[in-house]
């Protein structure tokens, strides 16, 4: 029984630890990495109260050392999808009726577990399983995930306090019920925080979920489940299954209790899902909520007044951190000819210093791409570009998959602003540059806007306020997250709500109050204190 309006602690972004030489966090992380390396773990699916093991195994290996085995996960089939839906629906009533502060407490406790005793473990799992260096793992699986949990608890409270006006004689109220049914959380490989947040924020709002992660993220997904269970999440609220996407989709998207999808992944997959939901629309009890954040072809445009060092730093970090496998990664840049030679010189100097290798060696800035399929696809783009007479190689261009899926940070220069690598999402460490004449700045802004179907992130570098203003107006629909004099990556929860428009998604801004509104089904209640007892208007009966 809740007899008070409780106040969720005001969230503050989790500080990013620096893992400097001799620091306790570095020692703890090295220990967790060694532990992870030394074991071969058996990863179950989590369905209701059961830890489900099957005979069909998925091998889990570090992308930077694919011969090494970290563990095996049990792969499920259609029967496990049915079981997960049933477990979710069985848990629904108790979970939906639990007072919201208990739900908040569970997820706030999970945040504290991640910030403290599980920090090294979740970061090590992300470093080993997804090949993120220590800094990239820290900003993702520790800080961003912790922020998602704490900020969302705070936003949930804000939603619940939102109430309508009432006039004399009556009391209007709105209650924010969870959705009627279960929600499918379908998550990508590249961010542990996103994978955890997609089911967690939905569950926080009182919903039950079936969660299917991308296979390369299973190793860290298992740690997320460990944390949530230790935080007290009841069985059946989040059911984690490892099943082929289309197999899961075929059952889930035909189920009458399917109430919504929380998706992050590629545009193509999201469009297929939306279409399937449309085809099945008459089967559902309620119109499903469709929330999806998808791909990008993120740009950097420099004005002739740009600061070259700031611009090149934005390009290097924006394009090559986590091997360009961020939906926000800078992958096309528009540089004015007056700056090109200085930009090129600085870019080559920076890239020469960058080391590539496994994540256990903390001096490596670049690690491996996620798997062989991604490696082959990215290598294909590089090979084709090398053959094109519209493209010249500025830096990198080599790759090797003998030990790990390593691709050098690669920079191309093109004379064709519509060349493939200026338009398509590559999702790897490949940046293509187009050099324009400074007097064509406005025309180039139009080119930036019209070149790709995406509108996720973009950045303008300029010291000229009129140029910045023009860029903001011309690119008003080109990016959901727009950066001025900064790289287009690295959004922070509570500071730069993240998401894109056009083909980049529904722009529901993960980790913001806007996103949480999608997971409630409001009920408006009007209570009249003294009910009328006569149907007639006062003037009835008179001429
Ligand atoms: N906008 C954002 O916030 C954001 C964030 C992270 C990643 N992304 C995007 O995600 C993509 C990279 O992640 P990914 O490779 O894991 O994406 P993906 O689309 O290949 O996979 C996403 C999820 O969908 C599943 N899936 C794939 N095909 C399916 C199908 N036919 N039916 C049902 N499920 C299916 C996958 O198994 C995975 O769990 C990139 O396009 C990137 O831009 C976007
Ligand atoms: N939110 C992350 C990108 C997530 C997509 O992969 C960023 O802002 O860089």
From TrEMBL:
Signal peptide (UniProt feature, chain positions): none
InterPro entries: Ald_DH/histidinol_DH, Ald_DH_C, Ald_DH_CS_CYS, Ald_DH_CS_GLU, Ald_DH_N, Aldehyde_DH_dom, P5CDH/ALDH4A1, Proline_metab_enzyme
Coiled-coil region: none
Pathway terms, separated by semicolons: Amino-acid degradation; L-proline degradation into L-glutamate; L-glutamate from L-proline: step 2/2
Enzyme class, first EC level, given as a word: oxidoreductase
Span of domain Aldehyde dehydrogenase: 56-515
Superkingdom: Bacteria
The keyword Oxidoreductase appears for this protein: yes
E.C. designation(s): 1.2.1.88
Catalysed reaction, written as an equation: L-glutamate 5-semialdehyde + NAD(+) + H2O = L-glutamate + NADH + 2 H(+)
Stated family: Belongs to the aldehyde dehydrogenase family.
Name of the protein in its database record: L-glutamate gamma-semialdehyde dehydrogenase
Organism, scientific name: Emticicia oligotrophica (strain DSM 17448 / CIP 109782 / MTCC 6937 / GPTSA100-15)
Lineage: Bacteria, Pseudomonadati, Bacteroidota, Cytophagia, Cytophagales
